[in-house]
Each structure stands twice: as C-alpha cells, then as structure tokens.
Design a protein that fits this description.
The protein is mainly β. It has a single domain, classed as Jelly Rolls (Sandwich). Helices cover about 10% and strands about 40% of the residues. It is built from 3 helices and 13 strands; from the N terminus they run H-E-E-E-E-E-E-E-E-H-E-E-E-E-H-E. It has a 9-stranded antiparallel sheet with strand order 2-1-6-7-8-12-11-10-9, with helices on both faces. It has a 4-stranded antiparallel sheet with strand order 3-4-5-13. The two termini are about 30 Å apart.
C-alpha cells in the first residue's frame, strides 16, 4: 500500500452517502461503469455492489471507488473506502476501507496481522509502533484489532491506523482506517468511532466466489 495519496490517485470521489438515500451527484447514463455501485434500503442501510450491507457514515465522509483507467482489469488495493478531508495544516485527512485481500497469506489472524504490517503503507517512510492488539468479535466470528502509529520525522508527519481482521468463509478480510496529521497536531478520535460503527454494522449479502467453489 502506498502513502496516503494513493487512494486519490487510484480512485474517483463519487460523493457521500446519507441514511435516507444517496447524496452523490446524479450519475451519467452513458455507460454502465458510471452507474452508482450502491443502493439504500428502507432500513437506512446501504447495499454496495449487491454484496455488502452496512450503515453509512456521516455525510462528510465521501465514498471512494477504485477505477482502472488503464483497462488492465486489475483490482485496486481495497474494495471500497470512505475519505474525509479535515481542517488544519496538511496532511489532515482520514480514510477507512474494506479490503478483501489484505497483505499476507496465513489464515491465522495474528500471523496475518504480522504479515500485513510488513507492507502496510509501504510507500511511506514511517517508523511504526504497535499501540494495541486485541481479539474482538468481527463479522459474526472471531476477529483481531491492531492499532499502530507511524511517524516520519523528516517530513514532520504522523499517522494513526487501526486494522481489523476477520474472516469471510475461510479467507481473511480486513477493515482499516488511517488518519494523517502533522507532528504536534492532535488526532481526531471521532473518526475511529465512525469506523468502529461501520465495522459493527457490516455484513455480507451473499457468499463470495470462493465460498461457492
């Protein structure tokens, strides 16, 4: 995973989601890829790609969708994400995402966490420290939450991140949030509360391709 800017380089911002409906601007009807990948339900949740259901974050969080402008057919580094630009000196922003393919290969959550952190935010020169690691319930089963902080003393930047690992069938999936700040500027922990609520509300609408084999 590249540094914080990779989300904007690989993706297109398509608007916020609100519980009462979709707050994005009206999409073009010219081509299938331009159609919004989600729909709201009468219960106020969002169904994304007819595969995932979750409670939407507040409107200031903007949905980020992976695009493949080169036509390579390759997927991005997350399934979808939400981005919030915040007041204050650069960098001041938060991103959280759902990822079907977190770095690593092990199906053991603690081992997968160690594998994942070897490449997490690989494009940024950061000195990481693990602040917390705990087993938590995720996706109706056992999960693992890891909180880390990375610092770049040369650029005067820091990032607080939380990665939550769970399972979809036998496969490990993850959720993560990253919040960037200049050194000396406090983190906004309300973003992590929004992230935790998103994870708690998340469920699968249908089985994955691998679960049907």
């Amino acid at each position: 995973m590249n540094r914080r800017a990779h989300l904007l380089l690989l993706s297109v911002l398509i608007g916020g989601l609100a519980a009462g409906g979709c707050a994005a601007s009206r999409p073009s009807a010219k081509s299938e890829p331009d159609r919004l990948p989600y729909r709201s339900t009468p219960q106020g949740t969002i169904i994304y790609g007819e595969e995932f259901e979750f409670s939407p974050p507040p409107p200031e969080w903007r949905l980020v969708r992976v695009q493949d402008p080169g036509g390579t057919g390759q997927e991005g580094e997350f399934s979808f994400a939400f981005f919030r630009s915040e007041a204050g000196p650069s960098p001041s922003q938060s991103v959280f995402a759902y990822d079907e393919e977190p770095f690593g290969y092990s199906r053991d959550l603690e081992t997968r966490a160690r594998e994942h952190l070897k490449r997490f935010l690989w494009g940024a020169i950061l000195q990481f420290q693990t602040l917390e690691q705990a087993k938590i319930p995720v996706l109706g089963g056992e999960g693992l939450a890891v909180v880390v902080e990375g610092k770049d003393p040369v650029k005067g930047e820091k990032v607080l991140a939380k990665i939550v690992f769970g399972k979809r069938g036998d496969r490990v999936v993850s959720f993560y949030i990253t919040q960037w700040r200049p050194m000396g500027v406090f983190y906004d922990l309300s973003a992590f509360s929004t992230f935790d609520a998103f994870v708690r509300s998340f469920r699968f609408v249908k089985k994955s391709f691998y679960e049907t084999l």
